[in-house]
Amino acid sequence: MKTLQNLEPLQILGLIGALFFLTAPITIPLVANDFWVSIVAEIMIWGLFAASANLLFGYTGLLSFGQAVYFGMGAYGVALSIDIFGFSFWPAVLVGIAVATVTAFITGIFAARLTWHYFAIITVVFSLIFFFITVGWYDVTGGDDGLPFTLPPVFKAGGFEVSLLDLTFQYYFILAVVAGCFALMHMLLKSPLGFAFIAVRENASRAGLVGYNPYMIRLVSFVFAGFFAGVSGVLFALFSRSASAHFLFWTVSGEGVVWMIVGGAGTLFGPVLGAAFLIIVREELSLYWEHYLLVVGVIVILFVTYAPQGIMGLLKSALDRIFKREREAANSVPTVGEAVAKEGPES
Q1: pLDDT digits (tens, 9 = 90+) for 79-101
Q2: Under 8 Å CB-to-CB from 107, ≥6 apart: which residues?
Q3: Which of 69, 90, 95, 155 is the most buried (most CB within 10 A)?
Q4: Residue 163 forms beta bridges with which residues?
Q5: What are the b/e assignments for 159-184, b being 16+ CB within 10 Å?
Q6: Is the pLDDT of residue 338 over 60?
């Protein structure tokens, strides 16, 4: 078992991050408004959404502006299951995730045949198609006005029930689901399939020559990305108690891409850092200036130009320099034996 001194710099940073998320409902109210606990919960949801875009772009080399489709389908899947069909909590959650994943599979059959800008364009087209269908089907979906619903209890036995109306339980429920998704994503990326994603990203022709099927690998990556986006959509619907056609529009996907790039594409937790940074900037600046998106745009331009590896890349470089100096300082201190040998025996 690794001691703290043997951990890599980013592993130590990960432990600090995990400790923060685990204790946020307790520590944040001590130093700030309780409102920020809900913001942290929202950051986890959007971080998972950005990670779904990162799975495609950072690891498979496909820039998608259509992740909002699966986010929205997950949200509507759970909302309609509860509001129209009267499903209980867990069946509704499973329906939402299944609807998003199946939608990703169907659209992926066509999209995974394309690469580069053609892939990006077709994902925008799919997003527009689903958005206009949802807006036009107002009687069922509520369009841009949204479809509110009443949360059923997560668990109920006799007079005892647990519900997401308890904000602390809601926070830890979101944390558990998001952590589980990132654990699954980590296992996926460390598996042979994950290395196949990277092989196709680097050179699809060579990957085909050694036996990979680039189309099938892209399709599998597309479906997994749709699954994770669907889970984030389900969580957001449960978090906000509603679903809206707005969340199927391609600009929502664009936000996920921006969070991914600012946080660090091709890294597991970079999208979470990007989402956290820009959401906090949004919340703070929107209080004082209605055109705060101009500042966000400048931040994105600066990152793309001067720090293309994102926040995660900057942190890794800074931590590596700090730990390198500490190791060099420790190695430069002579041991007792070396000091005695250097000074010579006493006369």
Answers
A1: 999 999 999 999 999 999 999 99
A2: 66, 69, 126, 222, 226
A3: 69
A4: none
A5: eeeeebeeeeebbebbbebbeebbee
A6: no
- Residue 112 belongs to domain spanning: 14-250
Domain count for the chain, please give it.
1
Question: Which H or E element spans position 140?
Answer: helix 138-141
d(C-alpha 146, C-alpha 140), whole Å: 10
Tell me if 181 is assigned to some domain. Answer: yes
Distance, in Å, from the CA atom of 339 to the CA atom of 212, rounded to the nearest integer, reads 59
Distance between CA 270 and CA 17 in Å, rounded?
A: 12
The closest alpha carbon to 99, from 200, 233, 201, belongs to: 233
Best CA proximity match to 177, nearest among 126, 217, 229, 235: 235
Residues 6+ positions from 127 with CB-CB distance below 8 Å: 65, 66, 68, 69, 248, 249, 250, 253
pLDDT above 70 coverage of the chain, percent:
90
256 neighbors 50 (Cβ within 8 angstroms): yes
Percentages helix, strand, coil for the chain (3-state, rounded to 5) are: 75, 5, 20
In a domain, 29, yes or no: yes
Whether 340 is covered by a domain: the verdict is: no
- Record the tokens describing residue 312, joined without a space: 């995660």
- DSSP conformational letter for 245: G
Is 132 contained in some domain? yes
- Virtual torsion, Cα 268, 272, 277, 279, nearest 10 deg: 150
**Residue 234 carries which side chain, given as an amino acid letter?**
V
